[in-house]
Amino acid sequence: MAGRGLDEHGLRRKVVGKLNKLPGVVAKKYHPGGYGSSGFPDLMVFFYRGDELEGGTLLCELKRPDGSGKLTPLQTRTHSLLELVGHDVLVASSLEEILDEMRERGYAG
Where are the domains of the chain? Predict the structure, then answer.
């Protein structure tokens, strides 16, 4: 891994650790387990929206920052279905991308 940067596993560990230190944020790694779980985003991020008594949820698929990770056809279909039923799905390669999206959706932390 030296010289190549983080792989997706390392990126996920770093992002989850940093998100969970932020006020009003809970990030959970999705643990696929069995039939029907392939294609689901890697992380579920729950966050508090400022002064409102309302929360936000962001489903995140993490890909390597070097651009080598691509969505599989199953991931593309699954993400589209999740969006169709009202979930926010983001494909990201950094913590900053996730934070930007959370702020766009009302996170004030």
Answer: 8-104
Coil vs helix vs strand at 55: strand
2-45 tens-digit pLDDT: 345 678 888 889 999 999 999 999 999 987 665 556 789 999 99
Query: Model-level pTM?
Result: 0.83
CATH no. of 8-104: 3.40.1350.10
Contact, 108 vs 26, CB < 8 A? no
What is the SS3 assignment for 60? strand
Q: Which residues pair with 27 in a beta bridge?
A: 45
Using one digit for the tens of pLDDT, what is the confidence trace for 39-63?
Answer: 899 999 999 876 666 788 999 999 9
